[in-house]
Amino acid sequence: MVREWKTKDFDYELPKELIAQTPVEPRDASRLMVLDKETGAVAHRHFRDITEYLRPGDCLILNDSRVLPARLYGVKEGTGAHVEFLLLTCQGGNVWEALAKPGKRAKEGAVFQFGGGLLRAEVVAVKDDGNRVLQFTCDGEFYSVLDRVGQMPLPPYITEKLQDRERYQTVYSRELGSAAAPTAGLHFTPELLEKVRAMGVGVGFVTLHVGLGTFRPVNEEAITDHRMHSEHYYLPAETADLIRRTKERGGRVIAVGTTSCRTLESVAAKEGEICESSGWTDIFIYPGFSFRVLDGLITNFHLPESTLIMLVSALAGYDHIMHAYRVAVQERYRFFSFGDAMFITSLEKDQP
Question: Domains of the chain (ranges plus CATH)?
Answer without folding.
Answer: 7-67+164-345 (3.40.1780.10), 71-149 (2.40.10.240)
